[in-house]
Amino acid sequence: MKKSELRTIFKAKREKISPEEISTLSLEIAGNLIAYFKPEGLRISVFLPILKFKEVNTYPLIEKLNALNNIICTPVSDLTNGTMKHVVFEKESEIRNNRWGIPEPVDGPELLPEQIDMVIVPLLTVDTKGNRVGYGKGYYDRFLSACSPTTRFVGLYLFEELSSEIEDVEETDIPLDFVVTPFKVVECR
Predict the structure, then answer these.
(1) Which end of the chain is more exposed for a tag (fewer CB within 10 A), N or C?
(2) How many CB atoms lie under 10 A from the CB of residue 78?
(3) Which of 96, 122, 120 is nearest to 42 (CA)?
(4) CA neighbor of 151 nearest in space, from 50, 58, 39
């Protein structure tokens, strides 16, 4: 299937999930990620969820990662040029929604892409090769292409089964290394 079709299907599937289910599934995802990777002392980029779009709630994951002495950073979008920078995120960080409704820290020390050990990536759906469908703006692909070859790219996915092959993958699409669901962790490459 093509990305545009998958985007429509998975936005509709997400709409059917209750906020309580999102909370439960998000906690399962956080537990699976921690159990599988056992991340300690890493620099990890974690997106802040757009709750109205029923994204995985990453706040419990951030708490668990902080308890393991990881440095958490979150993306801040530059809407004028389609890029993202990542700033250190702490409990006291002030959060503000950008004009697209994406929660972002107002300020903080910046981490460069090559300094980040793991990037937790949002998605609508993903296939078994790690090709993801996001919102279609390319922010994450541009950012991931600047990361170190050793950086692990990990998608968080609310559903059990991954999509069949995405037909219109482009050269600029950066595949994920792993996908964490509420049920399992899938290694993609």
Answers:
(1) C
(2) 11
(3) 120
(4) 39
Dist. CA 85–CA 71, nearest whole Å: 15
Separation CA 7–CA 5 (nearest Å):
5
| Rounded CA separation 158/151 (Å) | 23
Burial of 99 (0-12, 13-18, 19+ CB in 10 A): exposed
